[in-house]
Design goal:
Length: 610
């Protein structure tokens, strides 16, 4: 995830910026840069790679400036490179940006027609050009920024400096975090508090639409559109630096679970048009004609990403009526798969570097298939080697156990299924709009689902000492049973198994006794009555049933000893909502058992060996 730091004060800003960027390293990044004043001109230094490379490149320059901006970039549009690194410049305007600009393509084309020359592949550069354009028309720095941002759609946290008004930093926030730090005669902006925690603990957290103007005299706040002044009182942060890195959460995993409303919102941003009833196929780097001609799909992945693949099969076959096969990558690569003409292989990988997945991807290409990767890390090997890429915009995942990457993969698969179904003539525009409208509600519903956290903690307290755990699901939620079991195993070291509930009587039922907790996924769907019968089978043998059900369902209450209620959504999105209590349960059980949640034993975040 990108990181921002900005400084104005009496100190030399260069070491403050470098130190601030180092404090943001934990967020993950692929390039870094700073901007500062020298002889009344703004200069920019950037490089692909690490902050220490940037530091080494400026070491002998003896740079001094009392005002400056710094940035670490996690690529979303355009590969990691020096040209794509921030700060970006247009004329005298230099800025750093976090977030995603939805309409950057249209804006860039318009600006190009007016003679603007772009030097990067980023969405960010359009904001600089827009502000510069208004500045050239005679508007002051502040008004040019306000005017430019009227045209920008999407999420942004920006820090801006201007050669013509050298004693100011302007910062604006919309849907991407930005904070202001107020010290003694020195002021900061940052994407995240740890960037300046060493210098001040007084913080103002900006709200959507807030503009902050930082000068040597202080900070003033206003609404970016109405110009109305805003009164903001800094609060004192008592977090330790390590707590601050995790946004006040105890572990990265918990932070990432709670980041999901934002991660999903970023993943759907600009990816479809409700008005037109269309998925933006550029985001899959595919043409509708290519989709039309597909007659078979293979979904290939490892671990949690394989669970996404299993759910993808339900979505694709149900919506688009195209047959799908799902494979674990380490099996696919050696099984001599038969891939008929007109097949697409969809590879799913958070890191884009998993050895087995990459080998399966290579094998698919060798066998003549087209490959689409659904991937989180821009310019990873999988992304570079695939024919088409859909990037999930969940931001870097630091906890070893995958959470937000999983739900954003499912979001990508939902969009792909709609696009395919539309191309195949299996969905009406009316139905497509309905599916989009439900997707638009998803971030909010995920936020609502997260409110189960304290109820889940209570359940975890009750069961954290058990030896085994069984998870049951049916249909599209059967893979969520597998996912719940995998998460519990990997971070709490409790033996757990996920089963399709109808299969229980063919073996696992022998395990049920008074000590066996069974978590049953029981949404309101076509197999609800069936799962209720399975819950009864468990209950009658003394097992303890924890049910995850749709809110408002009262029938489930008499069949379970604990019920977690989840907001209602459509059939295809239920797995996203229902994964939330399961990830939280694994998390709390692991914490109660004093396990190393973010770095479980024997596991690595990116499995780059076979
Ligand atoms: C489980 C987990 C792993 C990964 C798997 C694939 O919580 O994180 O099972 O899902 O190692 O990794 P990617 O998606 O990077 O290919």
């Amino acid at each position: 995830m990108c990181g921002i730091i900005g400084y104005i004060g009496k100190k030399n800003s260069i070491p403050v910026l470098i130190n601030g960027l180092k404090r943001l390293e934990y967020r993950g990044y692929d390039s870094a840069g700073i901007a500062f004043f020298r002889n009344d001109k703004i200069e920019v230094r950037r490089c692909a790679g690490k902050i220490r490379d940037l530091e080494a490149s400026i070491k002998n320059e003896n740079l001094k400036s009392v005002i400056g901006l710094g940035h670490t970039r996690w690529a979303t549009h355009g590969r990691p490179s020096e040209e794509n690194a921030h700060p970006h410049r247009a004329g005298g305007i230099v800025l750093v940006h976090n977030g995603i600009i939805e309409n950057y393509f249209e804006l860039r084309e318009e600006l190009k027609k007016k003679g603007h020359v772009f030097t990067s592949e980023t969405d960010t550069e359009v904001i600089c050009h827009l502000i510069n354009r208004y500045a050239q028309k005679g508007l002051g720095f502040e008004d040019a920024t306000r005017e430019a941002l009227k045209h920008v759609e999407g999420a942004y946290a920006v820090g801006i400096i201007n050669e013509k008004e050298p004693d100011k930093i302007i910062a604006v926030k919309k849907d991407s975090p930005l904070v202001v730090g107020t010290g003694d005669g020195e002021f900061f902006i940052a994407s995240d508090i740890p960037a300046f925690l060493k210098y001040t603990k007084n913080v103002v957290i900006l709200e959507n639409g807030d503009m902050a103007m930082l000068t040597h005299q202080g900070v003033s706040f206003s609404n970016v559109q109405t110009k109305k002044p805003l009164k903001k009182v800094p609060s004192k942060i008592s977090w330790s630096p390590s707590m601050a890195e995790k946004g006040g959460y105890k572990h990265f995993m918990l932070k990432e679970i709670f980041e999901q409303p934002r991660a999903i919102a970023d993943t759907i941003r600009g990816r479809f048009s409700v008005g037109k009833g269309e998925v933006n196929l550029d985001e899959f780097s595919m043409k509708e004609s290519a989709l039309k001609n597909l007659n078979k799909i293979f979904l290939v992945a490892c671990g949690t990403s394989w669970h996404s693949a299993l759910i993808g099969k339900y979505m694709i076959e149900d919506m688009a009526r195209v047959p799908c096969e799902v494979d674990i990558a380490s099996e696919f690569r050696y099984r001599k798969p038969f891939i008929p003409k007109g097949s697409l292989v969809i590879v799913i990988t958070q890191s884009g570097e998993t050895a087995d997945t990459l080998a399966a991807q290579k094998e698919s290409k060798k066998l003549g298939a087209r490959v689409l990767t659904i991937c989180n890390v821009v310019d990873s090997t999988s992304a570079r080697e695939a024919d088409s890429v859909f990037y999930t915009h969940s931001g870097p995942e630091i906890g070893v156990a995958s959470t937000k990457a999983f739900t954003t993969q499912l979001t990508g698969l939902y969009l792909f299924s709609i696009a395919l179904a539309k191309a195949k003539g299996k969905l009406h525009s009316r139905e497509v709009k309905k599916l989009f409208n439900e997707l638009l509600l998803l971030p909010e519903k995920v936020g609502k689902a997260l409110q189960c956290n304290s109820a889940v903690l209570k359940i975890a307290r009750k069961f954290c000492q058990v030896r085994d755990f069984l998870y049951l699901g049916r249909g599209i939620n059967y893979p969520i049973a597998l996912e719940g079991a995998l998460k519990l195993k990997e971070i709490s070291y409790i033996h757990a198994e996920g089963y399709p509930a109808g299969e229980m009587k063919h073996g696992p039922i022998a395990l049920i006794d008074n000590d066996m907790p069974v978590l049953a996924l029981a949404p309101d769907d076509n197999v609800f009555e069936k799962i209720i019968s399975n819950m009864e089978e468990v209950k009658s043998r003394g097992g303890k049933v924890i049910a995850v059900a749709t809110e408002g369902n009262t029938k489930v209450l008499s069949h379970a000893s604990h019920v977690l209620s989840m907001p209602k959504t459509n059939y295809y999105l239920t797995p996203i909502i229902f994964s939330i209590p399961l990830h939280l349960l694994a998390y709390h059980m692991a914490v109660l058992r004093k396990c190393n949640v973010d770095q479980p034993r024997n596991l690595a975040k990116s499995v780059t060996v076979e």
